[in-house]
Amino acid sequence: MIYTITFSPSIDYVIKSNKEFNSYGLNRINDFDIFCGGKGINASVVLKRIGFDSRVITFTGGKTKNFFYDLLKQENLEVINFEVEDNTRINVKYFGDNNSFEINGPRTNISENRINELLAFISCFNKDDIVFIMGVCKQDHLIKLVDALNKNNVEFVLDVDLENNLEVLKYKPFIIKPNVDELQRMLNITINSENDILNSMKKLISLGCKNVMVSNGKDGSYLLTKNNTFYKVKIDEIQGIKSTVGAGDTLISSFVCLYKNTNNVYDSLLKATSLSIGTSCSMWLAKNEDIDKFKNKIKIYKNI
Length: 304
What we know:
Number of helices: 9
Order of helices and strands: EEEHEHEEEHEHEEHHEEEHHHE
Strand content: 15-25%
CATH architecture of the largest domain: 3-Layer(aba) Sandwich
Helix content: 25-40%
Shape: globular
Family: Belongs to the carbohydrate kinase PfkB family.
Keywords: ATP-binding, Kinase, Nucleotide-binding, Transferase
Number of domains: 2
Mean pLDDT: 91
Radius of gyration: 19 Å
CATH class of the largest domain: Alpha Beta
GO molecular function: ATP binding; phosphofructokinase activity
CATH topology of the largest domain: UDP-N-acetylmuramoyl-L-alanine:D-glutamate ligase
Protein name: 1-phosphofructokinase family hexose kinase
CATH superfamily of the largest domain: Ribokinase
Pfam family, one: PfkB
Low-confidence stretches: none
Strand order of the largest sheet: 5-4-1-8-9-10
């Protein structure tokens, strides 16, 4: 079974406007959408749309919890929730013709009791399961979680900020996905070239990662496998980009599940990249038809 964990889920209020934003007065908008948000949520939604069922582990509560679940029900996802006292946060995402910005609510406070309940829940997981740990997570909570998974031979994916927390890599995540900025902070280095990126990825594998993916925004991504095979993904200029929010979540989750299903790195990377572009070209997340839609915009180079 596939599980995703979102420690700080959200309700995303997405505003669209074709007018100049007025920082000092009243703004009227053309349209808006409301979505459930969070990196693990994004992953589960995309996976469901391309044919992979998953169970969504969340921490929600307060006055906004029920509204959050009303939104989540629309995607027909199975949810396991650990109740918290905080309101489920609300994020505002503004997309105008000339500018865009985000205002994110406070992160969810999770008690030790709730973390212990999570650890008890995952104690029955086994080698046939895979867990996506995504988004914000306290370092001590993360160590407890991956230690428990590791003891049961459960593979896990890390898409969290690992700055000052490389210790977690000794638990051998199946794959991690920093972006270039996060990679620099993780290793306390400055990256000036593609060769620097490759050497940094090799360093992470030497510390315990089985595979490493590095996202590089509109320029594509890199993948280094445990077999020391290096892939560079380049993306042609794409028209109609609306937002990159969720593109990385789409990329890593779809790649892992497609690869686990086919054992074909190249094809899985191609389809996952096409899906990530689909997310960037929508107001929320990619749909199933995006899995092949942008393939002609993608070039993958192996062991260059």
